[in-house]
Amino acid sequence: MTDVIHDLDTRRLLCPMPVIKTQNKVRTLSTGDCLKVVCTDPGALNDIPAWCRINGHEVLETGEQGNECFVVLRVGEDNGALF
Amino acid sequence: MTQATQPIKRRAIALVSGGLDSMLAVKVMQEQGIEVEGVNFFTGFCVEGHTHAIRKKDKDKEKRNNSLWVAEQLGIKLHIIDISEEYKDVVLNPRHGYGANLNPCLDCKIFMVNQATLMINKAREFAGDRGFDFIVTGEVIGQRPKSQRKETMPIISQESGADDRLLRPLCARNLPPTLPEREGWVNRDELHDFSGRNRKPQMALAKKFGLDDFAQPAGGCCFLTDESYSNKLSDLWKARNERRYELDDIMLLKVGRHLRPKPHYKLIISREEGENRFLEGYRYMFSSITTVSCPGPLALVDGSFESDEELQQAAAIVARYSKGRVLDEVTLEIRQPDGVARQVTVRPAQPDDVLPAWNVG
Ligand code: SF4
């Protein structure tokens, strides 16, 4: 069975907006859900994985395609929905 | 020891800017066994992040968001909150006025601590034990002329609604005891009494904690403390005849050379490749000028031309910053946001044609 992958488009947004959008999207997901974030600010390739490490989410894949980057993550135990 | 006799683990939420002071404040709390989570507020004026993404000269430095990096070093969770919309009122109508530039530091601090207060109230309501007991900041008395004075500390505590749930571990001993101190959750004797602009005590404490890689913003944590940036923001308000801004406006003020040849239009001219790429993303919102016959910058036109002469003048100015500046003629393309474009050929402006007074910032 393949996991459903949710999508988030943060193209054209600059740091820290891609992280904020990711955080806010994750709050709406459940533990174990997967999310693919697409971005154009290459800084997000550092920031989103750092945010995942801090908040206990797993980074499954990162990559670059042309001017775009992406991060696939799996939501950890706490989706941070309190805030 | 049984579960019942173990002391309750007290929890604090710390304002994490990404600088050294908030990092130390969190460390001091962790040393006392307090469990800390961080919160970082995105106002739109933050220095870090996008500026690295934009400017090519910063490319060699690793691009990182300092608050995330700090949180990772400290081993704490970090919540990043977008307050850019609500923050407009702080910038436009600060009750306590501005600092040296357009920085409303005191109102800003009150606003942020208030946001943190709302967060801990909400957490207490919904999370019970997993809520937070108090708020921590890295403020130091006397460090900033406007917001961090001994008289302003109680103002921040009161007007934010945090009251005695606001603890400043780096200067707490210069202030009346707060709730966490009175309740014995933290030991006041192990808090600090830093004051003034001397950074030596912070450096010593950093050393003691083994911290050696941290950001040290000189003026303040945001662009509003920057004179040139504040001038550009004032100019924007003057040109529009009203004090307001959108997020895109304040982002664009961070980038490029800003020239205002006429009250009704301003040129934002890229100075290097990174800025070029950044401004490229705004061509669907603004008319833009690029050189065709030689390499040159990308310029956005904020406002509009009242005559063809003005358009020619703007083209000549942009040509001045292109590789063709010494040539007799340069061809440029002026493109509207909808993609409709036309070309003009002009003589590049001469150094004396670009008046110093046009320089915004
Ligand atoms: S420097 Fe900027 S972010 Fe820092 S307190 Fe002042 S206004 Fe707020």
Automatic annotation (TrEMBL), chain A:
Residues 7-73 form the UPF0033 domain. InterPro entries: TusA-like, TusA-like_sf. CDD domains: SirA_YedF_YeeD. Pfam families: TusA. Transmembrane segments: none annotated. It comes from the Bacteria. Belongs to the sulfur carrier protein TusA family. PANTHER family: SULFUR CARRIER PROTEIN YEDF-RELATED. This is SirA family protein.
TrEMBL record, chain B:
Residues 256-358 form the NFACT protein RNA binding domain. GO terms for molecular function: methyltransferase activity. It comes from the Bacteria. One of its GO terms (biological process) is methylation. Keywords: Methyltransferase, Transferase. Gene3D superfamilies: HUPs. Pfam families: NFACT-R_2, tRNA_Me_trans. This is tRNA (5-methylaminomethyl-2-thiouridylate)-methyltransferase.
